[in-house]
Amino acid sequence: GQNIDQPTEMTATEGAIVQINCTYQTSGFNGLFWYQQHAGEAPTFLSYNVLDGLEEKGRFSSFLSRSKGYSYLLLKELQMKDSASYLCAVMDSNYQLIWGAGTKLIIKP
Amino acid sequence: DSGVTQTPKHLITATGQRVTLRCSPRSGDLSVYWYQQSLDQGLQFLIQYYNGEERAKGNILERFSAQQFPDLHSELNLSSLELGDSALYFCASSTGQGEVGTAEQFFGPGTRLTVL
After folding, report:
1. How far is A80 from chain B (nearest CA, A)?
2. How far is CA A56 from CA A46, A53, A61, A91, B39, in A?
């Protein structure tokens, strides 16, 4: 079967760095997405990785290792507004998005 | 603002009833996706349409049905509603069917359905 694993919840301190991991087992691979979702709101796109390596976008970076079935989202200089759920999703060989359950990130002052 | 619109924003109804949720995709997007998100749960993919045709089916109950019209807007019909159907229903759209480069999904604000 297809599976996406992420930690359920993480806590970090304002100004610090946090890494949210995602491991996956899917039927084929056509890219990995990270989305941010604030409570009660729609998910918004953060990043897309299809090749191995690190993609940096401001305070957010996303890493992919296809051979290990592994990705992480790195958030730097954490701000209170970063408190949200972070969703990992993998596109399989049929171009269908398989979604993880999300990681709830709590930022403390 | 993602450019995806959904109506209504909130819907309160009773068990056994039927409701219709509406979604208009971003201009130019041919794919529409429907998701269900229960309280503190992950996104559950329901169904995808591409240019009027059903493209993929997820965990959609037989009581639920959807369609995409020639103008590309989509409707999700939920019937014989149960208490457990209370959730946020999101619509998303993308440019293509999901191939690399067209796969980014843009989400609407959602419809919050409460079944009493």
Report:
1. 20
2. 11, 10, 4, 21, 32
By C-alpha distance, the chain B residue nearest A93 is: B99
Q: What is d(CA A77, CA A39) in angstroms, rounded to the nearest whole number? A: 21
Q: Are B19 and B76 in contact (CB under 8 A)?
A: no
B20 vs B39 pLDDT, higher one: B20
Q: Which residue has the tokens 């403390």?
A: A108
Q: Is the peptide bond between B8 and the residue preceding it cis, with omega within 30 degrees of 0?
A: yes
Instruction: Please name which of B76, B102, B101 lies closest in space to residue B90, comparing C-alpha atoms.
Output: B76
- Helix, strand, coil shares, percent, chain A, to 5: 5, 55, 40
E strand or H helix at B11, and its extent? strand B10-13
Of the candidates B48, B44, B41, B40, the residue with the CA atom closest to the CA atom of residue B23: B48
The DSSP symbol for A34 reads E
**Is the CB of residue A100 less than 8 Å from the CB of residue A91?**
no
Cα dihedral B49→B94→B4→B90 (10° resolution): 60
pLDDT in tens, A47-89: 999 999 999 999 999 999 999 999 999 999 999 999 999 999 9
* pLDDT, position B96: 73
- Mutation pick from B47, B60, B107 vs chain A, by most beta carbons of A within 10 Å, is B107
Interface touch A101/B41, C-beta < 8 Å: yes
Kindly give, in sequence order, each residue whose CB lies less than 8 Å from that of residue B71, ignoring residues fewer than 6 positions away. Answer: none
